[in-house]
Amino acid sequence: MSGSGTDRKRVVVTGIGVVSPLAVGAELTWKRLINSQSGIGPITQFDASDLPARIAGEVPAGPTEEGGLTLSDWVPVKEQKKMDRFIHLGLAAGIQAVEDSGWKPESEEDRCATGVMIGSGIGGLKTIYDNSLAVAAGKARRLSPFFIPSSLINLTAGHLSIRYGFKGPNHAVVTACASGTHAIGDASRLIQHGDAKVMVAGGAESAICELGIAGFCSARALSTSFNDSPTTASRPWDRQRDGFVMGEGAGVVVLEEYEHAKRRGAKIYGEVVGYGLSGDAYHITAPAENHEGAFRAMQAALKDARVSPAEIGYVNAHGTSTMADDLELGAVERLFGDAAAGTSMSSTKSAIGHLLGAAGAVEAIFCLQAMRDGILPPTLNLDEPSSESAMDRIPHKAKEQQVDVALSNSFGFGGTNASLVLKRFRG
Amino acid sequence: MSNEIADKVKKIVVEHLGVEESQVKPDASFIDDLGADSLDTVELVMAFEEAFSVEIPEDAAEKIATVNDAIEYITKQKAA
User: Fold this and answer.
1) Quick one: closest CA in A to B57, which residue?
2) Which of A67, A100, A133, B48 is most buried (CB neighbours < 10 A)?
3) Which residue in A76, A142, A149 is closest to B18 by CB distance?
C-alpha cells in the first residue's frame, strides 16, 4: 500500500512541538534532557498521600519564556473549560509544531491537503472522573454540555484543525502507550498514499489524576520505592527498577511530502523512512515471551526503511523502567546480532517518565534532535544494569556521536507494538 | 431586586462567555453579539438555574436569546 517501488513518496519532518515534564518547548526540553535534568517530582495535581505511588512527571507551571505552562498563551480562557488537560497540552505542542513549520495554507486546495492525527492512550480521565462524581451526587441533569467533547480522544485533532482550518484527514490513534508512534507512522502512510500532503501528527496525555495513578498502581505498573527521591525513580535497565513513573505531556510533528516541503523551502529536521507494526496475541499487560512482538515490529520497520541494523546508530528504547526492559534489550540484540556492539540505546523515560500515548511522539522528536545535533541523550539512574549488553546504554550523561539513522520503539497494553526508523536529512 | 438580578446575570455572562462587561448590553444576543455557540447557551442557562435557584424548562430556555430575555424571565420567576 505504501509502495515498495522507487516511486514511494518521501515524508519529512518540518515542524516539532513538545510539552514535557522538563519544559514547554521542544528545544528547552531537549537542552535540559541532554543536560541530565529530571522532570520527576512529587505529585501536586491532587493529594496522593494515600497511594503507593506519589511521584510523577508533571508539566511545570510558569512563564512561557522560562519553559513553564501558561495556558492562556496557548488556549483562550473562554475555551479552556471546554477541554480536558490532555487537550490543553496537545494544543500547546501542536501550535508549536505548526508555527515552527511555517505552513499556513491559504487556498482551499492546500487546506484540504493538510490533516491532523493526534492520539492519546487514555483521554480525558480526570474530566470523566469529575463528572462521574457529579452524577453520583444526583446532578446528572447538571453536567456541563462540554463534558463529552472535553473527554474525547480525537478532540485534540479536532481543535487543532478548527484553529488552523486544516480540512484534510482528521484522525486519532488509540493504542495505549504506542499511540504517539502509531500516529506518526500512520500519518506518514497517509502522505505516502496520497491522502494528504501535510499531516500534523503526534500524541497527548495527561492522566496524573487520582483515578489514573490509582488504576496503574492496582495494575502493579508504577514505581513505589522512590517516593522520597523522585528523580531516581525512573531507572530503565537498572537492577533496582520497580515500575514506571507516570509522566504527562505531548509531542507533535508536522509531516510533509518531501517535494512539497522542498518547493516552499521548509526547514527539514529529518525523514520518516520506516514504520513497523505488530501484535503480541499474548497477554493484556505483559509482553510476549522474549518480546517477540517487539522484535517483529522493529524488523518490519527496518525492512520498510530498507536499512540494515548496522546502519542504525541510535535506538530510543521503549524502556519504561519495568521488568520488560531486559526483554526489549534481548529483542534488539537478537535483531541486531553483531551490529549491536556498534549501536547505542537509551531510554529518555528516565528523565521525563512515561508519557503513555504521548511517549512515542516525544521520543521520535528526541531522535530527530539527536541526529541534528550529534548528541545522544542519556539513560539517567542506570547505576547497575541487571543484564549485560554490548550496546552502550548511555548511562547518566549524554554523549557526542553523529548518527544518521535512528530507531524508536513503543509498546502498549493489549500487546500492540510500533517502531519508527528516522533518518538525518541531507539535502 | 431586579437590579440585583440584572447585575448577577451580567456577571454570569461575563464569566461564562469571556466577554467584557461593557459588551453585555440589555439587547445583546448571546449568539450574535457575544460569541456564544449552542453549547455555550446550554451552559449559560444551567448557570442561571444554579445561581437563582430557578428551573428553566427547555422551551423557555430556547426563547432566552438576549441578556434582557434572561433578566426578564428570572425576574418573573422570582416574583411568582
Assistant:
1) A141
2) B48
3) A76
pTM for this one?
0.95
The span from the CA of A95 to the CA of A16, in Å, is: 9
Instruction: Tell me the residue range of the domain where A72 lies.
Output: 12-264
Check whether residue A143 and residue A250 sit in a common domain. Answer: yes
Digitized pLDDT (tens) for each residue of chain A, 427 residues in all:
444 455 799 999 999 999 999 999 999 999 999 999 999 999 999 999 999 999 999 999 999 999 999 999 999 988 999 999 999 999 999 999 999 999 999 999 999 999 999 999 999 999 999 999 999 999 998 999 999 999 999 999 999 999 999 999 999 999 999 999 999 999 999 999 999 999 999 999 999 999 999 999 999 999 999 999 999 999 999 999 999 999 999 999 999 999 999 999 999 999 999 999 999 999 999 999 999 999 999 999 999 999 999 999 999 999 999 999 999 999 999 999 999 999 999 999 999 999 999 999 999 999 999 999 999 999 999 999 999 999 999 999 999 999 999 999 999 999 999 999 999 998 6
| Best mutation target, A75, A144, A147, A148, to test chain B (most B CBs within 10 A) | A144
Closest-CA residue of chain B to A81: B16
- Tell if the CB–CB gap between A146 and B43 is shorter than 8 Å: yes
Distance from C-alpha of A146 to C-alpha of A127, rounded to nearest angstrom: 10
Show the domains of chain B with their CATH numbers: 1-79 (1.10.1200.10)
| Total Cβ atoms within 10 A of residue A409 | 28
Residue of chain A whose alpha carbon sits nearest to that of B48: A142
Name, in order, each residue with C-beta under 8 angstroms of A272's C-beta and a sequence gap of 6 or more. A11, A12, A13, A184, A185, A188, A255, A420, A421, A422, A423
Do A168 and A233 have their domain in common?
yes
Q: How far is B79 from chain A (nearest CA, A)?
A: 24
| Residue A5 maps to a domain | no
Cβ burial, residue B4 (10 Å; 0-12/13-18/19+): exposed
